[in-house]
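User: Fold this one for me? It's Dihydrolipoamide dehydrogenase.
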Amino acid sequence: MDCDILVIGAGSAGLSVAAGAAQMGARVVLLEKGEMGGDCLNYGCVPSKALLAAAARAQDMREAGGFGIAPVAPQVDYAAVMEHVAGAIATIAPHDSQARFEGLGVTVIRAHGRFTGPRTVVADGTAITARRVVIAAGAAPLVPPIAGLDTVPYLTNETLFDGTELPGHLLILGGGPIGMEMAQAHVRLGSRVTVIEAEQVLGKDDPEMAALVLDRLRHEGVEIAEGARAARVSGQAGALTVEAEDGRRFEGTHLLVALGRKPNVEGLGLEAAGINVERGAIKVDARLRTTNPRVYAIGDITGGLQFTHLAGYEAGVVIRSVLFGLPAKARYDHIPRVTYTDPELAQVGLTEAEARAAHGDRLEIVTESYAGNDRAIASRRTEGRIKLMAVKGRPVGVSIVGAEAGELIVLWALALSRGLSLKDVAGMVAPYPTLGELGKRAAGTYFSPKLFDNIWVKRAVRTVQRLLP
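Assistant: Here's what I get for Dihydrolipoamide dehydrogenase.
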């Protein structure tokens, strides 16, 4: 079989390439050995956000008192919650289905592919030769060699959503975004939850902003143990123990391993294609080409940022290269990330620490509290703030913690993507009352000292006032 573009992997990255290329006239073959839609649809973004939404409804019932509505303890049917999760997946699945992509003109082969040459892959007995190959095989849960872990039952994001019984006491190894989202979801649904983190929880985020998230989770009942590197796991179903290197012991009924993800580089025959692997991931250049210039790699398999929206962005870069021969390059300074806890934690561009290291004394920082926003006050969601890092009137990074932070970061992702100035943002008219006013106010606050505390501005105003008829 010959084709223009062969895509390995039908997750977010691969599907974006296949759909775009086929609709623009290329002959496309798509290989997928597992579920169409990949991790995001089946084990990641969709099920986790559906579970968080159910947990939020339960928490609303507990916290209704502030609105003059009698709070009640929610009666949680965990099996029904998981039916809701499955329903969300099923509703979205047709968009990622084999039938849809075949309708777009893509040849879909549900089999594992392995390189046998620089641009030839064998799948299910068929040799496929392509002008260009795009590897988008994703990543799998990282399960480190912790003593005893292979002898006890444990969950990953690939098995968590199959459960129908609420965990009595959920132990979570890993305090990153996945671990903290699942910790809050389960404590709100009625589980006892302990997070065991080897270093610092949400350690990649601004510590000042992350602290608000951790305070809220602790208030809701999540136990958080930092600096607790797991050394041994023992027990049996319903009675598990995690021992840390410092001697601390944690006992629970269920164990979720949320320690990151490992690129799926095994079994692809990369050596036969001259494709190098570096630090466990496929090595790519700025154009997302591997060490074989006919082969590209995008998404989680490259070992970079692992976000669905980033996979879609990288797919666009590759499409411009393989379809039109354009020297498109990927950039990552404008890629946002969000942890969907409550409050949400969002970041685009540099954090404060990164911005100080990069820009030194040129850096100016503005903070704006949710407590001064009328919509936040009306909704009783005043917990949060926006932190704006700017250099010479342009944003270089924004951190937001609070309600709808993932929505609010969109404005700043646009600003960094298009090189907008703070003057551009301040000149925007935001509807009232909305949380969106926070971004405009932060930009306006940047200019306030320059306008209101400037003696020359005041003298100019007085002069103009004397001259006006």
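One thing worth pointing out: The domain at 337-452 is CATH 3.30.390.30 (Enolase-like; domain 1).
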